[in-house]
């Protein structure tokens, strides 16, 4: 068995660069959902006893860059979902854009073999690195989908899901 | 340049088997959301002018197995989102379970190099095979997240998102 055989039995499905672009495409769509959300409803509007959309976005901000930082080799941090700057829509969008840059920067530091390793994300969630990253992305899609319902019930048309 | 070098510059992020297991994990969660949904509301309840959850599930059924069948090399079919059997909850769950088996069967027929090729899914959506599969999964997460809001506003606690 050599590396050539290994490559044949475990073919490339998606490359690290493609996975990053996939995530950033989703993050760009989420940014447009934040932009579409009325500022006065970000922390006041909710359905079925769920969190307001602003709190969901704070969770996404708490996960993306800090989570990727740990994957890149830094010590685990605790989840910080209370970001003072995110209390206004402009502040939230500014944090989002900073996260976008941080994500690109940390991603570039992830060694290629890292995706197959195990990690205890935020010191508490165990899994492979690849499954952890997919969890981050899936969690964003999940909450953004809920944001779509919030927007629709507020009479606002969300951006198209497929437009990434 | 040989295959060995190529394997080094494009490391494995996720294998085909892992991607299938990831998707089936999501599909198992979606199945439990369908189970949690009151049958009498599947096609009558909606928020903000959106589709009832039952129609979203028909879309997911129309995509998963037929989409994977095409990826496995069969001719493209048109999207068929009108499934008579899905009109009842029991029928919908039975179709869901059939799709689970079909998905496994077609997946096993996908050649390893196929994930990097381009495809015109359902004869109209162009992309790579990997991005098409991620789109199928992401679309399911998106609509299931909306189903969570429907359930919550109906006073029903959905299954935990992380329980897959």
UniProtKB/TrEMBL annotation, chains A, B:
<comment type="similarity">
    <text>Belongs to the DinB family.</text>
</comment>
<dbReference type="InterPro" id="IPR034660">
    <property type="entry name" value="DinB/YfiT-like"/>
</dbReference>
<protein>
    <submittedName>
        <fullName>Putative damage-inducible protein DinB</fullName>
    </submittedName>
</protein>
<dbReference type="GO" id="GO:0046872">
    <property type="term" value="F:metal ion binding"/>
</dbReference>
<keyword id="KW-0479">Metal-binding</keyword>
<feature type="binding site">
    <location>
        <position position="143"/>
    </location>
    <ligand>
        <name>a divalent metal cation</name>
    </ligand>
</feature>
<dbReference type="Pfam" id="PF05163">
    <property type="entry name" value="DinB"/>
</dbReference>
<dbReference type="InterPro" id="IPR007837">
    <property type="entry name" value="DinB"/>
</dbReference>
């Amino acid at each position: 068995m050599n590396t050539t055989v290994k490559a044949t039995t475990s073919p490339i499905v998606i490359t690290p660069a493609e996975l990053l672009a996939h995530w950033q495409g989703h993050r760009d769509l989420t940014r447009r959902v934040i932009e579409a959300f009325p500022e006065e409803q970000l922390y006041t509007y909710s359905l079925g006893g769920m969190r307001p959309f602003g709190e969901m976005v704070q969770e996404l901000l708490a996960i993306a860059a800090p989570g990727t930082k740990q994957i890149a080799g830094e010590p685990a941090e605790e989840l910080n979902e209370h970001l003072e700057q995110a209390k206004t829509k402009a502040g939230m969008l500014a944090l989002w854009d900073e996260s976008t840059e941080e994500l690109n920067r940390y991603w570039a530091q992830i060694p290629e073999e890292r995706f197959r390793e195990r990690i205890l994300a935020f010191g508490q969630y165990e899994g492979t690195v690849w499954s952890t990253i997919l969890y981050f992305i899936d969690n964003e899609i999940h909450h953004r989908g809920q944001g779509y319902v919030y927007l629709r019930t507020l009479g606002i048309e969300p951006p198209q899901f497929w437009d990434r």
